[in-house]
Write a structure and sequence with these properties.
The chain has about 350 residues and is α/β, with parallel strands linked by helices. It has 13 helices and 13 strands. The chain has helices spanning about 1-5, 20-30, 50, 70-80, 95-100, 100-120, 155-180, 200-210, 230-245, 265-275, 305-310, 315-330, 335-350, and strands at about 10-15, 35-40, 60-65, 85, 125-130, 180-190, 190, 215-220, 225, 230, 255, 265, 285. A seven-stranded parallel beta sheet has the order 3-2-1-4-5-6-11, with helices on both faces. A two-stranded parallel sheet has the order 7-10. Helix 8 packs parallel to helix 10 (about 265-275), helix 10 crosses helix 12 and helix 12 (about 315-330) packs antiparallel against helix 13. The termini are close together. The relative contact order is 0.14.
Amino acid sequence: MRTKAFYRGKRIFVTGHTGFKGAWLCRLLLEWGAEVYGYALHPPSEPNLYTLAGLEGQMASYIGDIRDLEYLRQAMQQVQPQIVFHLAAQPIVQEGYRDPVSTYSTNVMGAVHVLECVRHTDTVQSVIHVTTDKVYDNQEWCWPYRETDRLDGYDPYSNSKSCAELVTHSYIRSFLYEKGVRVSTLRAGNVIGGGDFAAGRIVPDCIRSVCAGQPIQVRNPASIRPYQHVLEPLAAYVLTAQRQWEDPALAGCYNVGPDTADSLTTGELVEMFCTCWGEGASWQHQADAQAPHEAGRLRLDCTKIQDCLGWKPRWNIRQAIQQTVCWAKVWQAGQDIPAEMQREIQQYFA
């Protein structure tokens, strides 16, 4: 409740607001009475959550490329935000293999541009830079990664986010610390939830398949990932932005993931999805010998954020899947998506 009250009336600048996590974040902040401004490309898919969530008439939106420094600078100068959430990115591992140059330019130079604009915007006091759990040099070992472990993502997407972390650390030391701007990077695991229509993600693929009456095709059923509902990392983002505003010593880098028991294989996740969906939903393994490298095992140690900020996950993986299925069936039936999102937000934060 204290975090909700903190955001009332705050001017918030969200990059990537037309994407899946960005749209959920904007919906949450608007529910809490914040003044929200977004900067992003046009929604990345059709359908898309930004439109379905009814955000177009409720917030100011700058449609632009994060690589366009001058337009981004103009937008931030016009808004004069107090808090910045940087989510804009090329977020798909497979797309990173297909177009590494665009992936690096978006994820690395995009971070440079946001931080450069923050440097020249005197109203900004708190910044959250969202990266990924894939920033670590993954040795496929059995224990979870901590914030002190080596950064060196394997593929172009993961490595670009590792680079973005280094960019952020440099800007903090070189410019932002002396200005009193608090900056944290948050490394979240795989998120699921209603409104993700991206290609190449397992839960959107599940929903597309069952809506079409087809078996779900699973590429790597044995891979282990820390899955969590989208509201889990968003709760960590808004909490961190608030707490570092109140106490600069709390700014830093934080892992955000589920309890260890909720790091499960992709096959187990899909089986759970089929059970929750019902209606004869099924899946099958689709082996692809030509598929590029993907990590087989990845877990996060989230002790730091739990000890320093008091954040901990609220929904286990079964609850996360149930909420995702509920959202998808509301959408499939053509019912009220903003009301469904409001219900989930209120239930999560109750």
